[in-house]
Amino acid sequence: MLRLHLRRGSSNSMYLVALGSLVVVVILGVLLMNGGKKRTGKRRTMSNTTQSATASSDSVELFMYCAAGMRYPMEEIVKRYEEEYGVVVQLLYGGSNTLLSQLEVSKTGDLYLAGDSSYTQKAQEKGLAHERLVLAKMKPVIAVQQDNPKNIQGIDDLLREDVKVAAGDPDAAAVGKKTRKLLTASGQWETLNERVTDNGVFKLTVNEVANDVKLGSVDAGIIWDSTVAQYDELIAIETPELNKGLATIEIAVLESSQQPTDALHFARYVAASDRGSKIFSEMGFEAMDGDKWEDAPEITFFSGSINRRALDPIIKAFELREGVTVLTRYDGCGMLTASMRAMRKDQSSGFPDAYMACDVYYLDTVRDWFQDDVNISEAEIVLVAKKGNPKNIRGVDDLLREDVRLVLGHPEQCTIGVLTTQLLKEAGIYDELTETKDIPMKQSSAMLIPDVITEAADVTVAYITDTHGEAEKLEVIHVDSASAKAVQPYSIARSSEFKHLTGRLYDHIAASRNIFEAAGFTWRLDQPAGSE
């Protein structure tokens, strides 16, 4: 483990961080070359990953940059993970910002665990990190020895002449950065900074601050409450100024990883409620409610048929990267929601972990079972005739003509049926149309276009996205109405045991604007979403 120490003040911190970054490149090179020598172990196999084609019975080695304050829980988690899966995880400890600088220089490694989400967010913005998984929360406190000999009760006591203070270096450690931000807001940072520089010490990691307090080298230090819980010799003193500084611990999969599926497997293990999260909680952290642990989980995804053309490639890529299975059911949303109601009534299995409806209408009917939704896209509703438009259909009024044969979606089985009914009622022709014509009804939008192509019908009302696969055989007639559109929302089931995994599926969908637009959808994600 690389350790860089600052004796007094912080004037040399950037120089040492830069020097440490150069040193760590050499260290990483050695570690990663050694990692190429695979160690025998209980390697899991995942037939749906690209790695399965070349995997041997040997184990994987992962390399992770780990914030020093998470050393104790991570050592235990890594130990258990290696025992369970035979995968070796090498850990490099340091301050969160120091590690970020190092991985930016080296551009190697698999994972990055930071003491605050601001660092993983920055890593993502720099193109260094991909997925980010939330692990736990913590806040800064004043740490003193058990008997509190200097009777320190708050920040003002740290400014006393007789009190020697250790703090995290704001340019290296997450706790230092958080301390500077909070005490700048309270107007106390400038004075504390001077006191620490003149008569205290800035440290590169939170553990070094805690050790100084433990050994009596200083009278007090500002560290995380979770760090205090790991030292029997210390007690925590909460203050109003520091209580506002809740930090979120995250683990990120790095873009530099050559084995992202294995890295994600470990990250899921660390975040799982009955694996890593449990250990974080036992060691004094405010652990987040993670997914339950499964080696190769399966999630169930219900989606309206309209979304299939866009979702299929996204789901396949997601399965490959995550090493999971997505059991996707495409159907008319009326059929899907009817199945949901039956499952709830019978308390049977199979209820979806996530649902992407053809339109918000069919999410509203089951909204109580789902979390807040996000509008992903919209699809135009159009009239569709055979190429050349032999019946010269120009608008919805032409649907009343005796020589025009219709096929429509069933309003009780699919969204296009509901929206067609609304559209025709708005046009004032619905009652006359249904009274004068015997109209075949289909349970899904995907079943409408084939009837037009085979000349079983002259025209239908469909989503423009359904015409893309057979565009050379069809004529699209646009409808001049604000109601001629469907909006596709995505939502996660309240009952899902894999909310974070389905959240990452959403992230993949949200990053796939080009796929949706190529399938004929209009992108909506940057517009206000629906809510409960």
Describe this structure in words.
The protein is of the alpha/beta class. The chain folds into three domains: 13-136 and 247-287, D-Maltodextrin-Binding Protein, domain 2 (3-Layer(aba) Sandwich), CATH 3.40.190.10; 140-243, Periplasmic binding protein-like II (D-Maltodextrin-Binding Protein, domain 2); 297-532, Periplasmic binding protein-like II (D-Maltodextrin-Binding Protein, domain 2), CATH 3.40.190. The protein is built from 20 helices and 21 strands. The strands form three sheets. Strands 12, 13, 14, 15, 16, 17, 18, 19, 20 and 21 form a ten-stranded mixed β-sheet that branches. A six-stranded mixed β-sheet has the order 2-1-3-10-4-11. A five-stranded mixed β-sheet has the order 7-6-8-5-9. Helix 2 links the parallel strand 1 (61-67) and strand 2. Helix 1 (13-35) packs across helix 3 (96-106). The longest helix has 23 residues, at 13-35. The model is unreliable at 1-19, 32-57 and 528-532 (pLDDT under 50).
Task: Compose a concise summary of this entry.
The protein has 532 residues and is of the alpha/beta class. It is built from 20 helices and 21 strands.
SSE blueprint:
Blueprint: H1 13-35, E1 61-67, H2 71-85, E2 88-94, H3 96-106, E3 111-114, H4 117-125, E4 129-138, E5 140-145, H5 155-158, E6 165-168, H6 174-186, H7 189-199, E7 201-203, H8 206-215, E8 220-224, H9 225-228, E9 234-237, H10 240-243, E10 247-254, H11 260-271, H12 276-282, E11 286-287, E12 298-304, H13 308-322, E13 325-331, H14 333-346, E14 354-356, H15 361-364, E15 374-386, E16 406-409, H16 415-426, H17 430-436, E17 441-442, H18 448-453, E18 459-463, E19 474-478, E20 485-492, H19 499-510, H20 513-518, E21 522-523
Parallel strand pairs: 1-2, 1-3, 6-7, 6-8, 12-13, 12-14, 16-17, 16-18
Antiparallel strand pairs: 3-10, 4-10, 4-11, 5-8, 5-9, 14-20, 15-18, 15-19, 15-20, 15-21
